[in-house]
Amino acid sequence: MAIKVAVAGASGYAGGEFLRLLLGHPAYVSGELELGTLSAGSNAGQTLGEHHPHLLPLADRVLAETDAQSLAGHDVVVLGLPHGHSSAIAEQLGPDVLVVDLGADFRLSSAEDWTGYYGSEHAGSWPYGLPELPAAREALRTTRRVAVPGCFPTGATLALFPAVAAKLIDASAITIVSVTGASGAGKSAKVPMLASEVMGSVKAYGVTTHRHTPEILQNLRSVTDEEVSLSFTPVLAPMARGILTTAVAPTTASAAELRAVYAEAFGDEPFVHVLPAGVQPMTASVLGSNAVQLGIEVDERAGRAVFTAAIDNLAKGTAGGAIQSMNLALGLPETDGLSTVGLAP
Amino acid sequence: MAIKVAVAGASGYAGGEFLRLLLGHPAYVSGELELGTLSAGSNAGQTLGEHHPHLLPLADRVLAETDAQSLAGHDVVVLGLPHGHSSAIAEQLGPDVLVVDLGADFRLSSAEDWTGYYGSEHAGSWPYGLPELPAAREALRTTRRVAVPGCFPTGATLALFPAVAAKLIDASAITIVSVTGASGAGKSAKVPMLASEVMGSVKAYGVTTHRHTPEILQNLRSVTDEEVSLSFTPVLAPMARGILTTAVAPTTASAAELRAVYAEAFGDEPFVHVLPAGVQPMTASVLGSNAVQLGIEVDERAGRAVFTAAIDNLAKGTAGGAIQSMNLALGLPETDGLSTVGLAP
Amino acid sequence: MAIKVAVAGASGYAGGEFLRLLLGHPAYVSGELELGTLSAGSNAGQTLGEHHPHLLPLADRVLAETDAQSLAGHDVVVLGLPHGHSSAIAEQLGPDVLVVDLGADFRLSSAEDWTGYYGSEHAGSWPYGLPELPAAREALRTTRRVAVPGCFPTGATLALFPAVAAKLIDASAITIVSVTGASGAGKSAKVPMLASEVMGSVKAYGVTTHRHTPEILQNLRSVTDEEVSLSFTPVLAPMARGILTTAVAPTTASAAELRAVYAEAFGDEPFVHVLPAGVQPMTASVLGSNAVQLGIEVDERAGRAVFTAAIDNLAKGTAGGAIQSMNLALGLPETDGLSTVGLAP
Amino acid sequence: MAIKVAVAGASGYAGGEFLRLLLGHPAYVSGELELGTLSAGSNAGQTLGEHHPHLLPLADRVLAETDAQSLAGHDVVVLGLPHGHSSAIAEQLGPDVLVVDLGADFRLSSAEDWTGYYGSEHAGSWPYGLPELPAAREALRTTRRVAVPGCFPTGATLALFPAVAAKLIDASAITIVSVTGASGAGKSAKVPMLASEVMGSVKAYGVTTHRHTPEILQNLRSVTDEEVSLSFTPVLAPMARGILTTAVAPTTASAAELRAVYAEAFGDEPFVHVLPAGVQPMTASVLGSNAVQLGIEVDERAGRAVFTAAIDNLAKGTAGGAIQSMNLALGLPETDGLSTVGLAP
């Protein structure tokens, strides 16, 4: 019998990207996975085609209200909701339902971090959907609850954790600047995200206060007992998708030493690819794909390691990561429905 | 009698921007400044209109060969040449001619730095065209030779030097990531700079090796006796103009202390504007203008100061800075022909 | 005594562009023009700097409510309001006040056209602010009311009217496709205008129904007694500013004949420039300027004339055209504060 | 035994896109299709990864010289060569080899048209790879030679041919304006295609002379005995991919009549989708896919039909169309390896 999947928040960017990937998933094509309810908030009652004209095969699907009733009776429920809305819904879904939360609600294990950055009450934490992180993959194989990582933490964590774990960089002095496309801001209408405001311009935002900061810290702290401290600055660039993370930290290691550690960490990973010395990743190379392309260089004059990581914020950074974790939790091949081939140019 | 200005490299982006600004300069409008030779390399013999259709009033000007003969007889010669070509030309221009070099040749005072980063023999150094830097303005008033700063050093230096001079940040641990538009790469045809390669994508380049690194170091070292060490990473974003610099360094100072120092450094500066706390600059705000918009924040959790600076790489970062220095050297009002109003949206 | 100017709708794109141009207007610089009230709708009470960070010299100006009281006591009132709001305000301003309406309310002389396309009651019509159109300039010199043309009509009319007036094209079979930047949609937050929706994509909109259609027809009919019929399709492209109009019509004339007619029509016009045969305008060439660059070609195989016109929709297409008309109405030099030099690249 | 495929011109955009699609083709995944030689011109000897970093699984493949020897021994040879180079290669490949030419050489059946637009000698014509065109699909099932359509003709033909065939529009008075992304210009380094030239700007090019004009005419003439005459103007927009074609022609038909004809023409077509009345296609909806989204409207005031078509110029417009024809010629399911789901936002 088919595994039935519901998507809440289907008219948003994250939900739409999950559906885009699902449409090409072999288990969906074969009928093993089946698409049930697609739901939305204020867009309920409209067709998916009005919101995602690129999802032609689903154009006539009507969006239901996002509530426990419409989401009942599914084996997998994917939540693409505004922060703070996942907990109430998840509680009403049975423990056997695989709930994949694209939002932030269950990412942080520290209630203090949550409240400090999000302001509301902590809902708890779920297994973290970054299989490449030590111990994460095994936990995902058996869970019925997945907290999909934030887009910035995905790139920053993969860029840094092997060096932190190997104590090859000074983790107490990390600086991260991540340049992102506009889709990370979601699909709600706001003047600063209008095309005329974003095109032809670049700006930093959330400086010193971005909510993904404690998530990156949590991930890096999970692999070391040393002090971890970092500055994180996101920068908005005029493109729809993609995150290019530049992470810099003091090091006395050579590039070769660092590369050896990354080769070990990612040698068997299907989606993480370390580029040759002197080659830098570009976000176009991973657009639409689940690939992560990494650059590793050492600035010997300054005594710094410079890591760069390119991901697609909506794919590996959100919906692709969700598919990867869902595959693990369902016992499907981890890479099914996911690609390492980007759409370029 | 009119002051006669020649522009070598007039068909390039830097030369074109100098001409764009000059066309609106009050001294040009009044006839006090007069445009003589416009010259080029391989484009000699063609009209300026073929290369800069936006410079309508000069569309029919024919480009001369760039050589000592075509540049002779001018009071001001602006050089927008590939690196390494300025010295030979400059030597043939008399000591009374004001030579404004938009290129790198005379920016670095250390021959070792020059050879280490540019590979060729050091041509020497000229007064540095960044009037906001301590002591620079006075030197510019009397010189006949100006080395216009690089675009990245302009933003990074203005973002950092007051804090370095006041010893409010740890200058031995600075990290700079600068996101730039494509015009910084100049107007020569290269596959990686094709529109299809750049649009919809972001990438770092010149990681650990960019030639503007020693120039930023030189500037910051000029204001302190403490150790200065920095990592500099440029990132290419899909826009034509603009640089957004993010500079991060350890600090124990408060934001208020830092703001006080910047207020003092820039309070009388016509082009440098520190934004209110919590407000970040965007490059669109300074497009086409000579303005520098700065953001200053302190991340108390991480113990870091985060400085952001928006400039137009072709304007304040090249040709606008050149006009500013030229004004000083010619005894004209420093702000003539320059604006603090950007073209947005 | 200074001429006092108020701008209603100052936080929008049209109002902002008017202010940008005014800041560089010689009469403003000299103090002959003075800026009084800046007003807004829902943004009243906030500073201009929050909405237009590129207008640094006016950053601290506080926005008043747009009403008769705040706009009283000015010699010039510029209205950048949503369609349908100008009439009520204008009625409360004295007949000696120069009212420059950036909106559509007073552009159409036919009440039937107005109601057919805008749905509301016709407010009347004012002298049309396109000085290049026959008879328009003289009317503008003496009026106290100016209806600034729409952005698409500005480009399309200038591209076509000389050929229509000379009966060199079949005006009953004109096809116009105009590719526009996003700022034409204004600064209100709407999902389809989000950066992620617009970047990397092109779409037509308002097909067969766009409100600028009757305005173009009215303009072309004003220069001929022959039948005029046209199809107009606007296309949204991923850029902030600029309109490239392509207008095609049957012709038996040669390119030389057409060029002769355009040379006569625009030979003395300061802002309209016909490019040489084989050269096509690009919108970047006119960004921020009041220039119109025109291309004229004849497709002899198909028996069609193909006219192309590049304008900046916010400058010559809105606020630049407004300044030009204001100059005429105030007896100032028509070109003051306006430029034919674009911001490129 | 596996079907062996070679790609000549693999480092270009068309070749790269063919490879991108092939990597996801079920017959490639299953091993039924196998990738042999990848060849290039001046890039021979380099790896594919240096030119297409998005094609991770093929990154280490070394590019051979494009010649008869390197292409020998394959069942399918895909040619992505500069115009005029396909004939000499094709002659050296046996008649049993399926040759799929992405270039223009064999598209036109009229030697006069070829020489008039391309200037060189006519090489002949091959079955035309647009299966949706009447009679084309059957011819493709048995051919060993395929001329893949040009990108503009793909969109324009599909937008127009049903109306032309049904004599519902005046085919002697068609006007086409097609807005395209930059990748259509290929991957060779040219100043006008630099990012700084293209971003933030729109321009028409090839006005009255574009080489795709006779191809569109040929296609439309193939479905009618009435006169066909058209004006075609391509416009370059700041995006990498996508073509939005607007085609306008006189009509006395109603929208409903037109829609009925298109429903019949495309009802069974897997890739062509007519949007509901009032809905316009956007190119983002078809990015990376083989889908064609069409809009049909009638302007009753002007008596014109307005057709709009969105395609991805590299996918359905080049490499996707090639896969579709290859599938037919190899007896594979026509839709294998192709999608109707675009990458948006």
Oligomeric description of these chains: homotetramer
Which percent bin holds the helix content of chain A? 25-40%
Shape of chain A: globular
Largest interface, and how many residues on either side? A-B, 52 and 52 residues
Q: Major sheet of chain A: size, sense and barrel closure?
A: 7 strands, mixed
Unreliable spans of chain A: none
CATH fold naming of the largest domain in chain A: Dihydrodipicolinate Reductase, domain 2
- Secondary structure class of chain A reads alpha/beta
Catalytic activity (chains A, B, C, D): N-acetyl-L-glutamate 5-semialdehyde + phosphate + NADP(+) = N-acetyl-L-glutamyl 5-phosphate + NADPH + H(+)
Pfam family, one (chains A, B, C, D): Semialdhyde_dhC_1
Function (chains A, B, C, D): Catalyzes the NADPH-dependent reduction of N-acetyl-5-glutamyl phosphate to yield N-acetyl-L-glutamate 5-semialdehyde.
Pathway (chains A, B, C, D): Amino-acid biosynthesis; L-arginine biosynthesis; N(2)-acetyl-L-ornithine from L-glutamate: step 3/4
